[in-house]
Design goal:
Strand content: 25-35%
CATH architecture: 2-Layer Sandwich
Shape: globular
Structural class: alpha+beta
Number of strands: 9
Oligomer: single chain
Distance between the termini: 55 Å
Order of helices and strands: EHEEHEHEEEEEHH
Largest sheet: 9 strands, antiparallel
CATH superfamily: ACT domain
Number of domains: 1
CATH topology: Alpha-Beta Plaits
Length: 196
Amino acid sequence: MSEPTQPDPVKLIASIFANNKDSIAASIRKLSSLFGPVDYISALRAFDFTDYYEAEMGSSLIRRFITFEDLISPDRLPEIKRATNTIENELAEQNNRRTNIDPGYISQAHLILATGKAYTHRPYLKDGIYADLTLVYRHNSFRPLDWTYPDYAEEKTVNLFNMIRKCYLIQLKQMKENVGRHFTSNHIEREEIQPE
C-alpha cells in the first residue's frame, strides 16, 4: 500500500501574450500583486503559431514567459487559473480580451498548464479547471508529447524551460536545507518591466 505524501512545492510560471508590450506589462503587474515578486521575465517573442486569437486580440501578437519567486503548492493551480481569468476580464476592452494569460508550473518531472477545456489527457482538478500535461522531463530534458502545443514543443522554448527547471531545483534544495526560501535568477538575461 502506498502512503500519501505531500508533494514538493513547484515553480509558478505564466505565458502572457497580447498585441502590445503595455498590455503584457500591465498583466505582469497585476499578477505580481497577487502571487508575489516575478524573478524571471523572458525577452519578447512573436506568438505566430496560430491565428486562433486574431479575431479577438488582433494580429502581430507578442509573448513573454515569466516565473515567480515564491514556490507554490501544486494544488493552488485552479485558484490561480481563475485569478488569471479575472485579470484578462479586467484588461478587456469592449468585451474583447487584450491579453491571454496561461498559468502553470514546473516541477522536477513535468510542466503542467491550467486550462478550462477538457480533453483526454487533461485530468480534472476542481472549480472547472483541468491540468494539461504539456512537457515531461526525461533523458536530461523536457520532452513534448503527442498533444503538446507546437509553441511549447519548439526547441528554444524547451531550452528556456530546462533553464527554469535548473534554477527551480537550486531554489528547492535551498528551501529544504533552510538556507533560504528564494532563488532569484539574476544570472538570466532578461528585460525588466518598468513601473508606471
